Amino acid sequence: MLPEPFAVGAGRRAVPVLDEHAAAAAAPGVPGPGRVPFEETEKKFGTGQSLTSHITISEWLDEWLAGKKKLSDGGKSRYDIDVRVHLKPHLGHVRRDRLTVARLDAMFAAIEATNEEIRDANTMRRAALEELSTIPAKGKENRALRKGLKAAIEAMPPFRRVTGMASQHRIKATLRAALNTAIKRGDLSSNAAAHVELEPAERPKALVWRTERVEEWMRTGLRPSPVMVWTPEQTGAFLDFVADHWLYGVWHVIAFRGLRRGEACGCRRGDRNRLAKTLTIAKQLVQTRTENGWGVRESAPKTSGARVIAVDSVTDEVIDGQLARQEAKRRDLGEAWTDTGRLFTMEDGTWIDPRWLSEEFDRLVAASGLPPIRLHDLRHGAATLMLAAGVDAKIVAETLGHSDTRITREVYQSVLPEVALQAAEATARMVPRGDADKPSPGLTDVDLGRLLASPAFAARLAALDLHAETFVEQMTEAIRAAVREDPELDRAAAKPRSGTAEENRAEAAEAAATLVPLRRGATEDDDCRAAPENTSAHATLTPEGAKIITFPSGRVRA
């Protein structure tokens, strides 16, 4: 039992007594493991913490999570994974007040060791699958080889994902937040997680599937980056390929307006304003852990809450077509149709599982023969299209639901070569020059609508030789000459937009939509339903000498 000076409130008068007990604890004959460092005891006493009650990391994490009442479903799922998969197995048995930086360093070292094991196992399984693909199915000996190899593959661990540096930083952040709460309550005096150093988590750089990267992928099967973005021509090829798919509207809306996967699944018919050509993003469908595994539930959108986005005329027609198909299917199924009120549904009217949607997208991409991207990368492409069309970053951020335009600029603005070219030309124009030394106007800044209606350009276009080898050079010079004659054709010289925010968003949507060349619309009555033979059908003003890589033609049905 502690002497009276140890009572809370005794103040510094207890220090001599603490010194006596510390000296006694350090005396010969006192068991080492039971001793508590004097500095730790004094710190607890000075902050009013209990010197007798103890709680483990596992117990505290459970208590902390139970008190997080305002977490979104996504936040709960992330914390649950961090705690259940990493923190409890490595640190659950440790007393909260005995957690040290050394223990945390050991945990992250163990995670890295597990990563190496996962990589080795994945490599072995991948090599076995590749070997299996080379063995013919016919022949008694081949069948025996395939049977033995299949048995070996089944005995191997399944493919698993490693815990990357970004995930390790999230694990650290989860523990740090939990310990900070304990400090605020006065139950802990320091936060060991705040002093752990990890390697920086570099965000994967988004790259465009340019010709040389497609060739390398075809040769090796390797992706240059985890985050890849299609060119406008490749996006058009994919949309033409899935033109008859039941969920064409989903692919189109994500490709043009940049909705998140869950937001596209969660859109309701009532969220669409047909007259104003807007779509309110107020709900999303997300995966959530249930007693029986994983389920789907409705929640508010990520980060910025509900937002209103403009809908371009092409996308507006696509949504009309999607609703018409739903109505026709509802009449066919009768009572078997489930009316969930969603804008996009499965063929029986039920919710779309976001995880299934990603798997279906992967299947369609593989069938199209196009270079692979993730469904979320289709959203990256939408942002890039808007930026390449000259849309202001603030409008892009609002459309995507970003809380800060810095996120938009850092993640997307360096993706397409066209965007980088615009930035370079804008920088060059900042240096004042004499008339004789001014560079020719950049083609990326030309207002194509005004150019085609310009009498000056029409006269020069009529004089061009379409069969000449120098046609591209002639066309380029004709455009530049027309811009020099009529400076209003140069969008960089145009005055800033003066319309309302709604008008600017609508203009931005239409501008981005024009960058993806489609062979057909999405309505049922459209006459242009022929599938493209290859991506050259989508290319416009292809640079001279550029290599065209063909992809399989055809369309896919659900």
UniProtKB/TrEMBL annotation:
The keyword S-adenosyl-L-methionine does not apply. The keyword DNA-binding applies. Residues 225-425 form the Tyr recombinase domain. Signal peptide: none annotated. PROSITE patterns: TYR_RECOMBINASE. Keywords: DNA recombination, DNA-binding. CDD domains: INT_ICEBs1_C_like. InterPro entries: DNA_brk_join_enz, Integrase-like_cat_sf, Integrase_catalytic, Integrase_recombinase_N, Tyrosine_recombinase_XerCD. It holds the Pfam family Phage_integrase. It comes from the Bacteria. Residues 516-536 are annotated as: Disordered. PANTHER family: INTA PROTEIN, PHAGE INTEGRASE-RELATED. This is Site-specific integrase. It comes from Streptomyces litchfieldiae.
